[in-house]
Amino acid sequence: MIENTPVNPNSWVGKIACQYVHSNLRLDTTQVKTSVNSYVYALFERGSAQIKFDNHVITAKEGDFLIFPPHIHPVPISVSPDYEAICLIVSSSFIYDSPVVRNVCQTATFSLLSDSDPIIPLPEDFRQNIRETFQMMMRHIKNTHQHTLEALQSLFGLLLADVLAVIDTLSDRNTVNPHSYHHFIEFNKLLRKNFREHHEITFYADQLNISPRYLSMVCKQISHVTVATYINRHLMLEACWLLKTTDYSIQTISEILHFADQASFSKFFKRLRGCNPLQYRRGNEA
């Protein structure tokens, strides 16, 4: 007879935190043990802020929603006196505990991030939905009970579903042939499973039985991001995670990610990150 291992009702502690921040109260990342390997979500309620994001500065204002992936966390430079936001920090381990949440999270994150910034302007109805979800998360975190883990997982999934709905609403889906949109969704599914081994657009086009040119056109039309950018982002986030959370050598990581050799991996990493893998691991980013 197989017995089910009971789920620790407090297994969420140190993996997720939700809080208000304002001009006199900055984000407290210590509530999540592995904040360097966490996603940060922010809903700007009032005012504005200049934030350093991945070696450049972005400006967020009232009504904006931001997603910062692991290892590319926000660094506030300046905020207006009336600045107020709600921030959610979610560790990767919390996300990976649920395969469904993990897949939705990856889709939402990579659909949202653009080449220039992680900001999406929210229509008022979606803004209210996300605000209410954040507030419910804060209540469950404050008033814990034996089902807190399940409640937080459900609320986080709801948040991601709303984010995807916003992306879908603001995208060009309605002007895209449904067949093309299907290929775009299937490409994202294939990418999540195969990005470590396959870095070429031809592989994904062949799997979908379409031409590389057509896949490029569909991806650019729907997401405004190239296929190469999608692949590179997955590789970069995975590389950053391996460098920060494992003791694997640079050579081993290059092999895990199927680069031709360590030199090719280092060149790729420096081109996208601005420093070599060893500098990043030691915290000596340019």
Defining key terms:
286 residues, Arc Repressor Mutant, subunit A, five-stranded antiparallel β-sheet, 2 domains, alpha+beta
Q: Give the SSE string.
A: EEEEEEEHHEHHHHHHHHH
CATH architecture of the largest domain: Sandwich
Fraction of residues in helices? 40-55%
Mean pLDDT: 81
CATH fold node name of the largest domain: Jelly Rolls
The tally of domains stands at 2
In CATH terms, the superfamily of the largest domain is Regulatory protein AraC
Structural class by SSE content: alpha+beta
Largest β-sheet summary: 5 strands, antiparallel
Computed CA radius of gyration, to the nearest angstrom: 20 Å
Total DSSP E strands = 8
Uncertain ranges: 1-7
Shape: globular
Could you explain the architecture of this structure?
- The protein contains eleven helices and eight strands.
- The protein is α+β, with helices and mostly antiparallel strands and 286 residues long.
- The strands form two sheets. A five-stranded antiparallel β-sheet has the order 1-7-2-5-8.
- The longest helix has 23 residues.
- It is globular.
- It starts with 15 loop residues before the first strand and ends in a 5-residue tail after the last helix.
